[in-house]
Amino acid sequence: MFDKLFRQFSQFYESFNPSYFIIAVVAFSQGVQHLADLSINYMLKDDFGLSPAMMGLYLSYTTTPWIVKPFWGLITDSKPLFGYRRKSYIILFGIFDALGWIALSKYGTDNLSSALLLLFLIQLSTCFVNVVGEAILVEVAAQASRQQTNFQHGASKNVSIFFGVRAFGTLISAFFSGALLHYFTKQEIFMMTAAFPSLLVLVSFFYVEEKVDPRALDQNDRRNNTMQCIKDFWTFFQNPLIYKPVALIFCFMMAPSSSTIMFFFYTQVLGFEPSFLGQLKFVYALSTILGVLLYNNYLKDVPFKKIFITTTILYYFCYQSMIILVTRKNVEWGINDKFFCLGDSVMLQLVGELNLMPILVLACRMCPKNIEATMYAMLMSTINFGSTLGSQWGALFLILFGVNQNDYSKLWLFIIVTGVFILMPLPWVGVVIGGQDPYNQGISS
C-alpha cells in the first residue's frame, strides 16, 4: 500500500503544476473556516433562541451567493481586475472575507439581523474565492488533458486534490472546533477564523498569472468579450449531454435536510457537549478524505450510472439508520449513543462522498475553454441551489410534522418521509444518461 502511495506521489511530483499550490491554499482556507461552524450554530440556537426550522431557513438564506456562482464566474472570466483574471479577485475577496469574520466577532453576536447580514457577506466572499480557485482547477485540468489521452484520470486527480485538501482543512478545524468552545468565547473563535482568509491573501501575492493588458481591449471589446462568454455559455448549456445530467444532479440535491434538527437532538436530547460535536465533525472530515482516496484509487473508472445508482441506494439506507437513534432503539440494544453516532457518521459521510465525487468529476469534465469559471460555477451552483432548497424543504417538513426543540416525537417519521426524496431521481437515471456514459462523451465548446 505504501509503495503504491509513494508511486502516486512521485507521479504527482513529476507532473506538478505551480497552480496546484494556490488551488490547495484556496481549498484549505475554505475548509478550515469550518472552525466557526459550531460557534455559529450555538449562537443561533442559544443567543438568539431560534427553532430548528427557523435556524435552517436563516442559514439557507445566507448561502444564496453560492446559488449564483455563474455570475461570479462570468465576472472573473470576462472582467480582469488590475490586469488579472484570478489573482486580484482572490486578494480582494479574501480581504472582504477576513473583515467579515472580524466584524462578526465585534458586532454580530448581539443582533440577529447583523449576524445574518455578516454571515451573508462572509459566504459571498468565500464563494467568490471558491469560484476563482475552481476556475484555476479546471484550467489546470484542461492543460493536463492536452498532454494525456485519458482526460477522466486528469479530471479525477484535480478534483481529488481540491476537495481532498478542503476536507483536510475541515479535518483540522473539526479537531479543534469543539474543544475551543470550552476555552474561548464565540467571538474569539470568529476572530481566529479571520486569520485563514488573511493567510490566503498573503499567499496570493506570490501567485504567478499572465497579466492581461487592459489597453489591448477598448470598451466595445470588453463588452463583446462579456457577451461572447454569455453566448458560449448558453450554446454549451443547450447540449443534452449537459442539461440532462444537470437536471438529475439538481433533483438529487433537493432531498430535504435533517442537519439542523439533528444538531438540536444531539445537544438537547442526547446531551452531547461541544467537544463531542467537534469529534463528530472530525469523523465527517476524515470520512470525506477516505471517500476521496477510495474514489480516486479504485472507482474513477466505474461508469457514472453504475456508481451513482449504487451509492445513492447505500446512502438511503445509511440515512434511514438514524431512525434507530431517534427512537432510542440503540439503547435497548445496548449500543452507546456516542458509539452509534460515530459509526453512523462514518458510513453516512463516506457513502455520501462516494456519491458526490463522480458528480464533481463530471462537472469538471464538462467545462470548455475560455468559460471555465462560468461553466463549472453553473454546475456547482446547481448542487448548491439544490442543497439550499433541501434545507428549506427540511424546515417545511419540520413545521408540517410539528417537530421542534420541544417535541421530537415525530422525528422518526420526518426521517422516513425525507429519505424517500433521496431515491426519487433514480428512475430517471436511465432516461437522462441512456446507454451512454457522460464520462466518455466528447463534450466541447
From TrEMBL:
Subcellular location(s) of the protein: Membrane
Pfam families cross-referenced by the UniProt entry: BT1
Transmembrane segments: 20-36, 48-68, 89-109, 115-138, 159-183, 189-208, 246-266, 278-295, 307-326, 346-364, 376-399, 411-433
Source organism, top-level taxon: Eukaryota
Gene Ontology, cellular component aspect: membrane
Main location, first listed in the record: membrane
GO function terms (MF aspect): folic acid transmembrane transporter activity
Keywords, in A-Z order: Membrane, Transmembrane, Transmembrane helix, Transport
Keyword field contains 4Fe-4S: no
Keyword hit for Metal-binding: no
Family, similarity comment: Belongs to the major facilitator superfamily. Folate-biopterin transporter (TC 2.A.71) family.
NCBIfam families noted in UniProt: fbt
Protein name: Folate/biopterin transporter family protein
